[in-house]
Amino acid sequence: MTYSNIEDTLWVFFLTARKNEPEKEDIRDAAFGVYSLIKAGILLKDIRILIDGKDSLLKSNLFSEYIEDDVQIFDTDSFESVLKEDYSYQHLYVFIFGHGSMQGIASEPDITPHRLISSIKNTNFTTSVVILGICYAGLFNYINATSEVRSDNSKTPALVVIGSTSMHSAIACSITHQIDDKKVTWLANIFLHYFFRWFSSPVDVDGDSHYSLMDAFKYAVMMTNKKNQELRIENFANLVKDSEKINNKIKTSKEQYKSYLETEKIFKSKVRKLLNKPHKNTIRVRKRLARRIWWYKFMTAELHKSMLKAESVFAFNYAERNRILSINLFNTQEPWVLHSWLAQEFEYVKK
Predict the structure, then answer these.
(1) Which of 83, 199, 306, 346 pairs with 125 at a CA distance of 20 to 30 A?
(2) Do 135 and 103 touch, CB atoms closer than 8 A?
(3) Tens digits of per-residue pLDDT, 187-210?
(4) pLDDT tens, 305-337?
(5) Residue 294: what pLDDT?
């Protein structure tokens, strides 16, 4: 069986936010996705855009950078009602943007895998495809993706689930793309970016003379890994330069800390000597002694503050070096697909 996925598919873009407003770059990712589908011949009337946030003007302005037509944007609370409307669509695509969490999709409250999949299975679509561009997307893997028979003998939709990464962070980088007659630059989710680019310009990756969802997945995986490799090479060179600077700062902080300790010892020693040294019990001598003791104690306190600051700078620079090393070199992205044989059945006509 081969599924036609242009006229009989509902395309849903889903972006939640834990705070009041979603990040601009995530909105741009969604806008680019809609732009790419329209370029592929999919009609705007078959697309539903669900984005959290009260700033409607911001969302409209960001979408206008990619799409000339006005778009209607719903709140994510309407997700289940959108899926249950009386459509003639046979198939469903859901693109998940934004952030992931240890519980699933970062939201208020977080959306668990069970909650999302149950909402989709409780519909009348024949098949459903979920593409997750969020961190820790692997939480949605290893689920029952097969179609099941309900008590009324109707069937739940069979699922294809695609994740941009497994139990790691999703990687984003600055990307410039030609949008009609202008260039737009934003911090794009790499996997989703190349996934959508495949739709606007399909590639027969496996050479079977068909353009399937698996081709889109394989293309996005290859391009994501290629881009990630380029970023690692670039970031390694930057890391070498940054590490040298940070190491110098750490060395300076250590030397300052050591110097402060030595100076503090000298001041404390002078105070002890002044206190233990016999003096003539005159008002003038006592005043001079009091001033000197006050001065040494003041300098000791100031040095202690500087010492703590140097220690803090040292700790920060050490942590920053490790953070840069972790992000630039050790972060990995492992895209995956659940129900791959079904994904092979989703075929598209190259336009």
Answers:
(1) 199
(2) no
(3) 999 999 999 999 989 999 999 888
(4) 776 776 676 667 667 666 666 665 666 788 999
(5) 74
The domain total for the chain is 2
| Host domain of residue 130 | 3-234+332-348
What one-letter code names the amino acid at 217? F
CB 49 within 8 A of CB 72: yes
Is residue 63 within 8 Å of 44, Cβ to Cβ?
A: no
Residue (of 159, 226, 157) closest to 191 by Cα position: 226
Q: What residues are paired with 48 via a beta bridge?
A: 12
Domain co-membership, 166 together with 40: yes
Is the domain of 305 the same as that of 195?
Answer: no
- Whether 209 and 247 map to the same domain: the answer is no
Same domain (yes/no): 124, 68: yes
Place of tokens 């778009």: 71
Give residue 87's identity as a one-letter amino acid code: Y
The number of beta carbons lying within 10 Å of the beta carbon of residue 317 is 19
339 shares a domain with 248 = no
Q: What are phi and psi of 147, to 5 degrees?
A: -75, 140
Three-state helix/strand/coil letters over the chain: CCEECCCCEEEEEEECCCCCCCCHHHHHHHHHHHHHHHHCCCCHHHEEEEECCCCHHHHHHHHHCCCCCCCCEECHHHHHHHHCCCCCCCEEEEEEECCEECCEECCCCCECHHHHHHHHHCCCCCEEEEEECCCCHHHHCCCCCCCCECCCCCECCEEEEEECCCCCCCCEEEEEEEECCEEEEEEEEHHHHHHHHHHHCCCCCCCCCCEEHHHHHHHHHHHHHHHHHHHHHHHHHHHHHHHHHHHHHHHHHHHHHHHHHHHHHHHHHHHHHHHHCCCCCCHHHHHHHHHHHHHHHHHHHHHHHHHHHHHHHHHHHHHHHHHHHHHHHHCCCCCEEECHHHHCCEEECCC
Looking at the structure, tell me whether residues 12 and 83 fall in a common domain: yes
